[in-house]
Amino acid sequence: MNYEDFYLSMQPQNKTVKDSLASLQKLFKAISRETESGDVKSLTRDLNAMAEAAASVSAALDGMKDTISGFDTRAYFESGEFAEQMLSACREQGVDVRGDFPVYEMFPYRVKLDTENQDIYLDRKKVQCMRPQSFVETVRNGQEKLNKAPFKAAVFVNELADAYDLAALKLNKNPESDIYLTSLYKFLAPMSRFRKDYDQQSFAFDLARLYASDVEETKNGRKYQFGPSRNQNKAIRILDKDGQEQYLATIRFYK
Fold first, then answer.
1. What mean pLDDT do residues 3-14 have?
2. How far is the C-alpha of 234 from the C-alpha of 208, rounded, in Å?
3. Which of 2, 135, 197, 226 is most exposed, with minimal Cβ within 10 Å?
4. Under a CB-based contact definition with an 8 Å cutoff, are residues 167 and 173 in contact?
5. Sign of the C-alpha dihedral, residues 85, 89, 92, 95?
6. pTM of the predicted model, to two decimals?
7. What is the pLDDT of residues 189-198, one digit of tens each?
């Protein structure tokens, strides 16, 4: 089952409906004029033509209903065909994707497929879309919009440094120690209601933009350094400015 095949099968009926509706609109204007002017002969002719156009719309709509009823949305999701076509669309449109069915990462988005209800979640938002190509276009457009959004790297690095200092104090760390970024996130968004507005994927996206920026130090002159970890569960995956994946696990601020 392929959505593009289903899409193509709907096009002739869509065209019929479109053409018939255009004809109905034209005929409606004509019979309005004919009624006003008293041209009963033309009125009778155009009313018959209008009835034929209306019947054409009705037949096309019935055909569309039959086509839709033959598209098993549950099987489409449960068989993994939607996911397979979604990944194919990602490759075609150059959208980086990682993960396994039913959860994927399209940085900085998290995508989850709900096979039971045939729904897609983009982060926490439900997206009503069963056309993989269209869904991936939505993701790509969202990524482009995020990348164009203003970002003050100098402000973010200072906020990160403040969280680092608080974490070092709370975690009893020595000055200039490496601290896990996942730990700093909890200090940046300490309460669950804050994390709804600023989730870890948003944090990862800000880290990626800082990583790609030319900001090298905080306002008080401290430099920073990202570090890796052998524990991949502690690493945050980002894409650099060249679209290559990087794994950032720790950070330290130092003089």
1. 95
2. 16
3. 197
4. yes
5. negative
6. 0.82
7. 988 888 888 8
